[in-house]
TrEMBL record:
<feature type="transmembrane region" description="Helical">
    <location>
        <begin position="449"/>
        <end position="467"/>
    </location>
</feature>
<dbReference type="GO" id="GO:0005366">
    <property type="term" value="F:myo-inositol:proton symporter activity"/>
</dbReference>
<keyword id="KW-0813">Transport</keyword>
<dbReference type="InterPro" id="IPR005828">
    <property type="entry name" value="MFS_sugar_transport-like"/>
</dbReference>
<feature type="transmembrane region" description="Helical">
    <location>
        <begin position="185"/>
        <end position="207"/>
    </location>
</feature>
<feature type="transmembrane region" description="Helical">
    <location>
        <begin position="345"/>
        <end position="367"/>
    </location>
</feature>
<keyword id="KW-0812">Transmembrane</keyword>
<comment type="similarity">
    <text>Belongs to the major facilitator superfamily. Phosphate:H(+) symporter (TC 2.A.1.9) family.</text>
</comment>
<dbReference type="InterPro" id="IPR020846">
    <property type="entry name" value="MFS_dom"/>
</dbReference>
<protein>
    <submittedName>
        <fullName>Inositol transporter 4</fullName>
    </submittedName>
</protein>
<keyword id="KW-0472">Membrane</keyword>
<dbReference type="GO" id="GO:0016020">
    <property type="term" value="C:membrane"/>
</dbReference>
<dbReference type="InterPro" id="IPR036259">
    <property type="entry name" value="MFS_trans_sf"/>
</dbReference>
<feature type="transmembrane region" description="Helical">
    <location>
        <begin position="98"/>
        <end position="117"/>
    </location>
</feature>
<feature type="transmembrane region" description="Helical">
    <location>
        <begin position="123"/>
        <end position="145"/>
    </location>
</feature>
<feature type="transmembrane region" description="Helical">
    <location>
        <begin position="67"/>
        <end position="86"/>
    </location>
</feature>
<comment type="similarity">
    <text>Belongs to the major facilitator superfamily. Sugar transporter (TC 2.A.1.1) family.</text>
</comment>
Length: 503
């Protein structure tokens, strides 16, 4: 199974994932049930782009004040920062399952608050509740899935969470379009998110805790029973032995009083493996946001109106195309992430993103320099480029950062490590979403997209130097690699990547 520290994952493809899931449907049950958190994550982050158009029509104060529009959009992100921070600690202290259940409760009540909101202030309150749930779900769902997946198909299964995120965003645009002429418009758009939260809550009550969390907390028999439903008999003992060895090594390095959150943070940063994992995990999460993706997902109807489509309904319909492409890209990621690797997909994705952002900037500049009004040719260019941007973003930078963060930390620090990285993601998201409209007012659309291209170039450089390849490796093998330290120029590390050529 393992030779020279590397699992033979070269032949693992999307079809292998489904063959395994077909033989062992329990794996897919766990992945899809936990992945509903991704659906809620995607829906609640995507739905506001269309709902905002109608909130502005109902409340003059929102229509007049750009900062109020930005706040309504961004308060979910602010809540997500807190939710991710709390979620990291809750994951390690109480388990992955409890974290998902708490997220569902927050989703449900946030949706109800927004649906009955009498004014902008209550919409903002509901967005904060939803954001808390989004933050917890964003790092817990991929973590739960990765710990309940055979390592050879772990990337593809965690990508199902990415597919459900993008699927949730696509669903949000469908719902937005469906309710454009229904009384209550935005109330239905925002309130309907309570239903999948309720469904997931019920499903999760019948599912087990993460087997790796159980093993780490002394419930070895229960963990072995669950792993026995995931791994074939000939692989189970090897997996249990690797897990037992890893936990014994972790416990040898423990110090009394490390159970508190601040002690855990201090311990995490003082651990070489965790710190190097955080360099990689935070890098990919920050880079994911500073390519400007959520300006497209949150404000795409507004951006499309900038390009000359004035009708709310037309802008929403065209935005449906971008979100559909995003979901399609997640399927591409599922097909190739275990074949070509995490690092390679992200580097290719970043190169494509930079190219698209530069060309989008040129198109916007030409449009602003031309006569008043936007020609049909310019709008066609814009829509095509926006679609290309989504296509190159989604399979790489869209899904892979969450996969990397679900598998790069030692078991003891997996919750807190994923939480720290998720906080960096949502903090970056907040900065980008809260400043986008203001940037377009001061720099213009061309200058804003060119700025994102510059940030993307910096992100590409950091990914190249700091992020190792983890495809096909057992969690314990990832720890050993980080213990030695990673460099793209080290012969040993290049050998690891060369053994996964992708064909």
């Amino acid at each position: 199974m393992v030779e020279g520290g590397i699992s033979h994952a070269d032949k693992t493809e999307f079809t292998e994932c489904w063959r395994t899931a077909w033989r062992t449907p329990y794996i897919m049950k766990l992945a899809l049930s936990a992945g509903l958190g991704g659906l809620l994550f995607g829906y609640d982050t995507g739905v506001i782009s269309g709902a905002l158009l109608y909130i502005r029509e109902d409340f003059d104060s929102v229509d007049r004040k750009t900062w109020l529009q930005e706040t309504i959009v961004s308060m979910a992100v602010a809540g997500a920062i807190v939710g991710a921070a709390m979620g990291g600690w809750i994951n390690d202290r109480f388990g992955r399952k409890i974290s998902i259940l708490i997220a569902d409760v927050l989703f449900f009540f946030g949706a109800i608050i927004m649906a009955v909101a009498p004014g902008p202030w209550m919409i903002i309150l509901g967005r904060i509740f939803v954001g808390l749930g989004v933050g917890m779900a964003s790092m817990t769902a991929p973590l739960y899935i990765s710990e309940a997946s055979p390592h050879r198909i772990r990337g593809a299964l965690v990508s199902t969470n990415g597919l459900l995120i993008t699927g949730g965003q696509f669903l949000s645009y469908l719902i937005n379009l469906a309710f454009t002429h229904v009384p209550g418009t935005w109330r239905w758009m925002l309130g309907i998110a309570g239903l999948p939260a309720l469904v997931q809550f019920i499903l999760m009550l019948s599912l087990p805790e993460s087997p790796r969390w159980l093993f780490r907390h002394g419930k070895e028999d229960e963990a072995k029973s669950i792993l026995g439903k995931i791994y074939p008999a000939e692989e189970l003992e090897d997996e249990l032995q690797a897990l037992k060895t890893s936990i014994e090594q972790e416990k040898q390095g423990e110090h009394p009083g490390e159970s508190g959150i601040f002690s855990q943070l201090k311990g995490a940063w003082g651990n070489d493996v965790v710190r190097r994992g955080l360099y990689a995990g935070i890098t990919v999460q920050v880079a994911q946001q500073f390519v400007g993706i959520n300006t497209v997902m949150y404000y795409s109807p507004t951006i499309i109106q900038f390009a000359g489509f004035a009708s709310n309904k037309t802008a929403l319909a065209l935005s449906l195309i971008t979100s559909g492409l995003n979901a399609l890209g997640s399927i591409v990621s599922m097909c190739f992430v275990d074949r070509y690797g995490r690092r390679r997909l992200m580097i290719i994705s970043m190169i494509g993103i930079i190219s698209c952002l530069v060309v989008l900037s040129v198109v916007f500049f030409q449009a602003s320099a031309s006569a008043p009004g936007v020609s049909s040719v310019e709008t066609a260019y814009f829509v095509v480029l926006l679609g290309l941007y989504i296509i190159v973003y989604s399979p790489g930078m869209g899904t892979v950062p969450w996969i990397v963060n679900s598998e790069i930390y030692p078991l003891k620090y997996r919750g807190i490590g994923g939480g720290i990285a998720a906080v960096s993601n949502w903090s970056s998201n907040l900065i980008v979403s809260e400043t986008f409209l203001t940037l377009t007012e001061h720099l213009g659309s061309a200058g804003t997209f060119l700025l994102f291209a510059g940030f993307s170039l910096i992100g590409l450089i950091f990914i190249f130097f700091l992020v190792p390849e983890t495809k096909g490796l057992q969690f314990e093998e990832v720890e050993k690699m980080l213990q030695k330290g990673y460099s793209p120029f080290k012969k040993e590390d290049k050998t690891i990547e060369d053994r996964h050529p992708g064909n």
